[in-house]
Amino acid sequence: MILISVDDHIAEPPDMFDRHLSARYKDLAPRVLEDGDGVQQWYYGDVRGRNLGLNAVAGKPPEFFNIDANRYEEMRPGCYDVHQRVQDMNAGGQLAGLNFPNWTGFSGQVLNQGPDPQVNEVMIRAYNDWHVDEWCGAYPDRFIPCGLLPLFDAELAAKEIHRLAAKGCHAVTFSENPEALGMPSIHSRAWDPLFAAAVDEGTVLCCHVGSSSRTFHTAQDAPPSVAMTLSPVSSILTLADLIWCDAFQRFPDLMFSLTEGDIGWIPYFLWRAEHVLDRHHGWTGHTFPEGTEGPSDVFRHNILCCFIKEPIGLANLEHFNIDNVCWESDFPHSDGTWPEAPEVLSAVLNGLDETQIDKITHANAMRHYQFDPFSSRSKDECRVGALRAASPDVDTVTRVGRPADDRDLVAWSKISARVAANR
Fold first, then answer.
1. What tens digit of pLDDT does each residue of 371-405 get?
2. N or C end of the chain, less CB within 10 A?
3. At what angle do helices 154-166 and 117-129 cross, to 10 degrees?
4. Is there a contact between 205 and 163 (Cβ–Cβ < 8 Å)?
5. Greatest CA separation for the chain
6. C-beta separation of 321 from 359 below 8 A
7. What is the number of structural domains in the chain?
């Protein structure tokens, strides 16, 4: 197989802004601070960044997964060092990956929340320059660049889409629910400048789980496993918004992706949407783009989806447009299968033909994100076995960190309380 993931993550290094800000802005740059307990945490002014915790556990056994923020030396270097990341990718048989941000929030929420929009824009551009030029630029045949946007201003966001496309970046983060961030909803026309730019450049708007800064808790005292089980729920809400959104009438080639939400639930919700259309079209009056008969057509034409290892969606593949189904590694998150992804994925893909497997494992990602690693290396050099042979000595066990204990449940309770307070 040839494996290209459409969802991996970076635990961004503390010095990432050093080479991408003028002297005027260096004192305003986001920074890593250490509290009295030795915890390292990103801050942008007074805005607290997302923690590391479960976002950086690759190579650890589940008994060492921690929910609280940790330190860089408590994770494997491949989480934050691009050279070590490539070695880890080789060991996992993975050719390439699209890397989402971490401490900024998955749609760059933290950098959009600063008090000065002009400074926010500067920091977002600096983040993108670091990501495209340093992280992805170090190994351009191994990374699909993914940019952040100044979502507080759709015109500025459109300009950044054009700027990023000129640098070869055709993926950007967009919120799964912008209204939850205090921005216009997907159903308003406020985003049309951004949508137009995305269509012009062939750029995909990526809606990652958690990119609305909301998580789903049934009750504040519910055990953590409830929320972990419900993690794909936000993608369900995003799908519902998108398949009934009228933006596709104005921008029929606009492409979104649903990221890290799995796919097995999608056929049912498409059925439900078709049922709603059949029973309620008389009074809702919803119309669809020319040549599109209903919400299922919108999904098959305009929305990408991806999975890590769940078999349910593949068992119902006839309900999907296979040209829009991709694989994700999710390195270094806790749902990821590194370094056994090839073995795990082979079992899940069992029964599909070679053409179907190639589309899901790499061809779809290459086409949608305008990424061509074969221009610099042969296909045989891109396969799992060849990559593993290139880095045979990588220790795939992460030998730092601590066993999980009561501190993790306490940290989870604090997170739940913050979520409840912000509802």
1. 999 999 999 999 999 999 999 999 999 999 889 98
2. C
3. 20
4. no
5. 64
6. no
7. 1
Q: How far apart are CA 97 and CA 136, in angstroms?
A: 10
Q: How far apart are CA 384 and CA 380, in angstroms?
A: 9
The CATH number for 242's domain is 3.20.20.140
State the Cα–Cα distance between residues 269 and 80, nearest whole angstrom. Answer: 37
pTM above the 0.90 mark? Answer: yes
Q: Are strands 256-259 and 303-307 parallel, antiparallel or unpaired?
A: parallel
For 155, phi and psi rounded to 5 degrees? -65, -45
Q: How far apart are CA 145 and CA 156, in angstroms?
A: 19
pLDDT of residue 419: 61
Neighbour tally for 353: CB within 10 Å:
8
Report which residue type is found at 367.
Answer: R
Considering Cα of 284, then 288, then 294, then 298, what sign does the dihedral take?
negative
Q: Which domain holds residue 94?
A: 4-421
pLDDT digits (tens, 9 = 90+) for 88-135: 999 999 999 999 999 999 999 999 999 999 999 999 999 999 999 999
Q: Which three-class secondary structure string do you get for the chain?
A: CCCEEEEEECCCCCCCCCCCCCHHHHCCCCEEEECCCCCEEEEECCEECCCCHHHHCCCCCHHHCCCCCCCHHHCCHHHCCHHHHHHHHHHCCCCEEEEECCCCCCCCHHHHCCCCHHHHHHHHHHHHHHHHHHHHCCCCCCEECCECCCCCCHHHHHHHHHHHHHCCCCEEEECCCHHHHCCCCCCCCCCHHHHHHHHHHCCEEEEECCCCCCCCCCCCCCCHHHHHHCCCHHHHHHHHHHHCCCHHHHCCCCCEEEECCCCCCHHHHHHHHHHHHHHHHHHHCCCCCCCCCCHHHHHHHHEEEEECCCCHHHHCHHHCCHHHEEECCCCCCCCCCCCCHHHHHHHHHCCCCHHHHHHHHHHHHHHHCCCCHHHCCCHHHHCHHHHHHHCCCCCCCCCCCCCCCHHHHHHHHHHHHHHHHCC
Question: Among residues 259, 293, 249, 303, which one has the least CA distance to residue 273?
Answer: 293
